[in-house]
Each structure stands twice: as C-alpha cells, then as structure tokens.
Amino acid sequence: MTSLNQPPQAKPAIRSILIALMLAIFLGALDQTIVAVSMPAISAQFKDVSQLAWVISGYMVAMTVAVPIYGKLGDLYGRRRLMLFGMGLFTLASLFCGLAQNMEQLVLARIIQGIGAGGMISVSQAIIGDIVPPRERGRYQGYFSSMYALASVAGPVLGGYMTEYLSWRWVFLINLPLGLAAWWISHRTLVGLPVPQRKPVIDYLGTMLMILGLTSLLLSITFIGQGQSWRDQQVAGFLGVALIALALFVWHERRTPEPLLPMHLFANRNAVLCWCTVFFTSFQAISLIVLMPLRYQSITGAGADSAALHLLPLAIGLPMGAYFAGRMTSVTGRYKPMILSGAALMPLSILGMAFSPPGAELLSGVFMLFSGIASGMQFPTSLVGAQNSVQQHDIGVATSTTNLFRALGGAMGVALMSALLLALLHDSLPVPVMGQPLIGEGSSGNVLLDSLSAVQGPALQSLRAELLLTFRHLLSISAAVSLLGLAAALAMPDQVLRGREDKAR
Questions:
Q1: Residue span of the structural domain in which 222 resides
Q2: Stronger pLDDT, 308 or 174, i.e. the higher one
Q3: Band of the pLDDT at 307, cuts 50, 70, 90?
Q4: Same structural domain, 245 and 298
Q5: Which keywords are on file for this protein (predicted)?
Q6: Which end of the chain, N or C, is less packed with Cβ atoms under 10 Å?
Q7: Do 277 and 251 share a structural domain?
Q8: DSSP secondary structure of 203-250
Q9: What do you get for the CA distance between the two ends of the chain, in Å?
C-alpha cells in the first residue's frame, strides 16, 4: 500500500509547495532591506539614534545564527514542523515590531523576527533538497535566487512608499497578511515530507557554543563595518570570545555522538569548496549592493531614488544568471562549469565598474548586469553542489551551512569594504569619519554624504575627483578578493549530479 500511495504524493508536491516556499524566501529576504528607508522616520518618532543601526543589524545577526540550528533540527524533527514554527515566529514578531513603543522593544522584536526568518530561508531550501533530485535542483534554487533579487529591489521601494503615505509601522505590519497566507499554504501543502524515524537527540552544549561564537563574531564584524578599529577594546573582546567559543564548539562537536554540525562534512572537499564559493560570491554581491549606490550618489550628487535605479541592472542580472545556470545544470548534469563561468566573470565585471565613470550610466549598467549574472550563476549551483556532496540525512545541515557561509560572506563583505572605504577617505573628507558608521544618523543618513554637503564650489569638484579614484582603488581590491572564489571554483571536482530529469516530473 505504501508503494502505491507514494507516487501520487511525489508528483504534485513540487508544484503545490513551491508558492509557499518562494513566499517564505521573499518575506525573509524582504525584511533585510525594507527597513532601511524607514530609519529616519523611526529615529524621529522614538528620538533615539544610539540603537538605530541595530534595527537592521539585530535582524541580520539573529537570522545568521539561527540558520545552522534550524538545519539540524529539521533533520531531527522533520522540516514541516520547523517551517511552520519559523513562519509563525516571524509573523508574530512582525506584529510586535509594528506595535513597538520604543527603540528597545523594536530591536528585541527584530531579533525575534530574524530568528524566524532564519528558519524560513534555511528550511525552504532544504525541503527542495528532500523532494527534488540533485540534477533538477538548480532550476528550483534559481527560482529562490530570483526571489532574493526581487525582495532586494522591492524592499526599499515598498518601504519608501509605506513610510511616506502610511507609517513606518506598515513596513512590519505588511508581513501579517503575507505571513499568515504563507503559513496557511504551508500547513496545507507541506504534507508527505520525510519525517525522521530516529529519536531526536539535541546537542544543547554545542548549540549554546555556536550561538555565543557566531553572535560574538558577527557583532565584532558589525562594529568594524561601522568604523571601529579591530584593536578597539569592545571589538577585540567580541573577537576573543568568538575565537574561544568556536574553538570549544569544534572540540565538542568532534566528541559528541549527535553533533549540531557534523565535523566530517568539513572533510568533504567538494562541499567545502562549494561553501567557499558561496562565501566569496556573497562577499562581492552584498558589498556591491551597499557601495555602488553610495559611489553614484557621492560622485554625481544624485539623490537616493536615482541611486536605487542605478542598482537595478545588478538586481536584474541575479535572476537571469540563476535561471540560466539552473537550466544548464539540469540539462548537463554538471554544476562546476556554471560556477566556474560565474567566478571568472565576477572579477572582470568588478574591474569594469571600477574603471567606468559613474556618469556613464549605460557602460556602468552593463558591467553591473554582468556582476549580477555572475552572482546568480554561483548561488544556486553552489548550493546544489553542496547538497549533492553529502548523504540524504545530512541535507538539512549541508543546506544550512551553505546559507551560513552566504550570510557570513555578505556580513564580512559589507564590514571590511566599508571599513576600508572609511580608512581611504580619512584624510580626504573635511570632517573626521573614523569611528563613525558609514550609514549613520546624519541629515542624509550617511556620514560620507553629510561630509560632502559641507563642501561647496571648486573644492567639491576636487573632492569628487578624489572620491572617484578612491572608489576605483576599492573596487580593484574587491576584484582581487573575488579571485579567491575563482581559485575555489577551479579546485572543485567536476562531479555529475545524482538523479534523472524524469524523476522530477
């Protein structure tokens, strides 16, 4: 009877649950960007700027730390239960965000919201690993990458309109109908997923050590990105705690019978190389999303709306590259050629942006489009490669580890590139910038743009020419860093994906 009932469940599963999974990805990614344009309104109402940066950073840190935990719990308890929990927590926290009466309540609610978002993003991708053969996963992961790109573009636009015409609270309250719809669809469609038959054993000590280590690491990275020196007492303290906690975590995981993150996975050469590729791809993509609009605004004097449009080619290129790589991976059964092509295109496109004037919008747009395509070709294929490299019972952990490396790459990219930019600009700007966040609480919301507003006439033109050269050096360094991702792609074995196309239909 079991064998007779299995085929009818497997065929509609992919189509019926895809909407719920894509909506979960969209919501989790949307709240990374939708809040940015609402920051001045939030700080104005609460009259508090000291904790303003943590409205975004708290969400990102919590989401990153939660991702690997959800991966293991999904392997132990089943992914349907974890997906519904993550969606429910995210939606409830969104309500608390919208009702917050002070900055402390808002930051706390954002942290809880990030914990829920980590589950939605991580478990969604692991579910695809459960129901789709590796050869077909690239196509579906490409859809997810498109959702990421759409959310990145839609976030600032939706946030701006709701803040302008409704209230900043609707930036969070909009998640209520969307989150409830996603929860209801998931509850009805996420049936028939594999449920582990083994007795769950939770590694409590490993979980606490990972939370402590990753949180300390991400906090230190965030402070560095805000302009603090790594030698600062607070930053050095967090780095020290991170080093000790993560070292103890590795020591403990090697000895516990049911580890949170099996260390044997890091002996898997192909999986590690896929994670390295994801790390460096995210390093470039996220830092470019932050720095390119800033470059355009500071050098041309354009407004925030024009800067957002300037970023559009990169956002368009992401789903293009993801869709193409996903289809080619399904056709050929190989993922390395797509990863290698994207890794080779990335440094060339970044160098093209470095040496194209911001005012030459067409030329700059072409190179930004290429960089988006390069990122899109690597994100879904690297995940598929990592999933293909491990046993089925480790799919959840492999997926969550991929997402962890992706999040760490983005966090380190923004932090290190922002810190490097502030260091390069230290002697150029008319007011000191070191020790200040790049995205701060000034009249424009940005310390660089606020500094430029203090300069007029020929001095401003001279400063902008110097800024052009500074950003050229910064992007050249970014291109050099991307060569590390190319090296990882070159070292990657050229494996054939398991599964046949007809099994996914």
A1: 203-257
A2: 174
A3: low
A4: no
A5: Cell membrane, Membrane, Transmembrane, Transmembrane helix, Transport
A6: N
A7: no
A8: -HHHHHHHHHHHHHHHHHHHHHHTT--TTSHHHHHHHHHHHHHHHHHH
A9: 22
Got the DSSP string for 124-149?
HHHHHHHHS-HHHHHHHHHHHHHHHH
Q: How many CB atoms lie within 10 A of CB 257?
A: 6
User: Which residues does 478 contact at the CB level (< 8 Å), separation at least 6?
Assistant: 284, 287, 288, 350, 417
Contact (CB, 8 A) for 25 and 322: no
Q: Same domain, yes or no, for 456 and 491? A: yes
Give mean pLDDT, residues 298-314: 71
Is residue 427 exposed (0-12), middle (13-18) or buried (19+ Cβ within 10 Å)? exposed
- Assigned domain for 198 exists: no
Q: Output the pLDDT for position 412.
A: 82
**DSSP codes, 420-439:** HHHHHHTTTSSS--TTS-SS
- The CB density around residue 183, as the number of other CB atoms within 10 Å, is 21
Q: Give the range among 101-115, 325-339, 429-443 with minimum mean pLDDT.
A: 429-443
For the chain, the residue count is 505
Residue 63's pLDDT band, with cuts at 50, 70 and 90, is confident
Question: Do residues 223 and 346 share a domain?
Answer: no
Per the CB < 8 A criterion, the answer to whether 143 and 18 are in contact is yes
Output Rg (C-alpha) for the chain, integer angstroms.
22
| Domain assignment of residue 331, yes or no | yes
CA 194 – CA 10 distance, rounded (Å): 11
Residue 399: half-sphere exposure toward Cβ, Cα within 13 Å: 31
- Among 337, 348, 339, which residue's Cα sits nearest to residue 371? 348
Query: What is the distance between the alpha carbons of residues 144 and 303, in angstroms, rounded to a whole number?
Result: 31
Number of alpha carbons in the 13 Å side-chain half-sphere of residue 131 = 31
Amino acid occupying residue 452: L
Return d(Cα 131, Cα 387) in angstroms, integer: 12
Q: Are residues 383 and 435 in the same domain?
A: yes
The mean pLDDT of 387-405, rounded to a whole number, is 80
